[in-house]
Design goal:
The protein has 415 residues and is mostly beta strands. It contains four helices and 29 strands. A five-stranded antiparallel beta sheet has the order 1-26-25-24-23, with no helix packed on it. A hairpin with a 6-residue loop joins strand 23 and strand 24.
């Protein structure tokens, strides 16, 4: 483990001190380093005006099935609140017509990391989109046909949507906002804030055709599943639900916090909440992605090997280490054909963030961009690289021009 990683591990137990030390460290190195804003063939897609534009998370594609139209959010300011109580516009960008934009709708529920979960709805990914909102005093999601303007209101917000557009899974966005700023919504107070292990639903399943809601699993169910001593007296939450490509199983990060101690395990289960499997329980699992129905790439800790990228086989103890030269956390995903991996980094000591492409164990940089200090900690702008449908372009959010914008970089595909 490098000296930087060792220091980071120790300081993780003291978040405020860690932020202060990190800021001082980066300020020093930034002051003595060459100043660069970007490296690479980067194209801006969103308008360069007084607004901020971004898409959100790395597990969804902003492109429709034709790779012509892209979705994003248009907001006034993302530098002061992780989940502002202001309206965000949902924008359609026509990349074949000078990146012309069109407002499709607006939403009252969004955050700086994952936006409003706006995405194209399967199985066609061409006419319908779905996004989260806050209406009539509660969270919901909206299915909008962008050609007819017809809307259907779903009585729960969505977190992960199956590729066939039939099912979705969701969680408590108010609890998530309280316990992990930048990922939940602030419209409602966490009604379970005084309960460390609520005996109520942690994950719901949604039938998007019938608007039926099914509680799947409670916080106490998670607690009772292979309970460890570190769970006792800790506050529990779930995050980062992802459904596998065929919609048969999903993964979720079960996290518990006790003072400065934080633990995360990667759990998978069937779509009906049965057949739970503890896939990785070595204190830390971060960002994950389904390579296919049975394999998951994750940046995680393995006690004998340390932190890095690992490829796990679901419902088995088998795993291999991948991307060994990339030692820092990022947001990995596989190309549509499964041949390539793209991932990113957080700002280094010079405040530069990178996107890397991996193929046949060869890792190469695609782009590097500057991250201004204005966007840091919970307000940071992660790149969250995302594939287009053809697998030859990557979109990402960045602030190297002084505010959030949506950008594209092409990939050099090997023939």
């Amino acid at each position: 483990m490098s000296l930087e990683k060792k220091v980071n591990h120790v300081l993780s137990q003291f978040p405020f001190i860690k932020k202060t030390v990190k800021r001082a460290y980066q300020l020093f190195f930034y002051s003595v380093s060459p100043k660069q804003k970007k490296i690479g063939e980067i194209k801006r897609v969103s308008p360069n005006d007084e607004y901020e534009y971004f898409f959100g998370y790395y597990d969804k594609s902003p492109w429709d099935s034709s790779d012509r139209y892209m979705l994003c959010l248009k907001v006034e300011d993302t530098s002061k609140s992780t989940a502002p109580k202001t309206i965000a516009d949902i924008i359609l960008i026509d990349t074949k017509n000078n990146n012309e934009i069109k407002k499709l709708a607006s939403t009252n529920s969004w955050n700086v990391q994952q936006g409003a979960m706006v995405q194209w709805l399967g199985p066609n990914f061409d006419e319908e989109i779905i996004y989260n909102d806050f209406q009539n005093g509660d969270y919901c999601s909206v299915i909008l046909n962008i050609k007819t303007n017809e809307q259907r209101i779903i009585e729960k917000p969505v977190y992960s949507v199956s590729s066939d557009g039939r099912w979705a899974l969701t969680l408590d966005f108010s609890r998530l906002h309280r316990l992990r700023e930048g990922y939940g919504y602030s419209n409602k107070e966490d009604s379970l804030k005084n309960e460390k292990v609520p005996n109520s639903a942690a994950i719901w399943k949604i039938d998007l055709l019938k608007n039926d809601i099914y509680p799947l699993i409670t916080y106490t169910d998670f607690y009772d599943f292979q309970t460890s001593n570190s769970m006792k007296d800790a506050e529990h939450k779930v995050n980062h639900i992802m459904i596998n490509p065929s919609g048969t199983r999903f993964m979720v990060l079960h996290r518990w916090i006790n003072g400065g101690e934080k633990h995360t395990r990667l759990v998978t289960m069937d779509m009906d909440g049965n057949n739970l499997y503890n896939l990785n329980d070595d204190v830390m699992t971060s960002h994950c992605f389904w390579k296919n129905d049975t394999e998951i790439i994750a940046y995680a800790n393995k006690n004998k090997l340390g932190t890095g990228y690992y490829l796990f086989n679901d419902q088995t103890t088998k795993f291999i280490q991948v991307l060994e030269e990339l030692t820092n956390d990022g947001h990995p995903s596989y190309s549509p054909d499964g041949k390539y991996i793209v991932t990113d980094t957080y700002p280094n000591k010079n405040r530069m963030t990178s996107i890397f492409l991996a193929h046949n164990d060869k890792v190469q940089p695609l782009a590097r961009v500057f991250a201004p200090f204005k966007y840091d900690n919970e307000l940071r702008c992660d790149l969250h690289p995302r594939w287009n449908r053809a697998g030859n372009e990557i979109s990402f959010d960045s602030v190297f021009e002084g505010k959030r914008g949506l950008y594209i970089v092409s990939i050099p595909l090997e023939k």
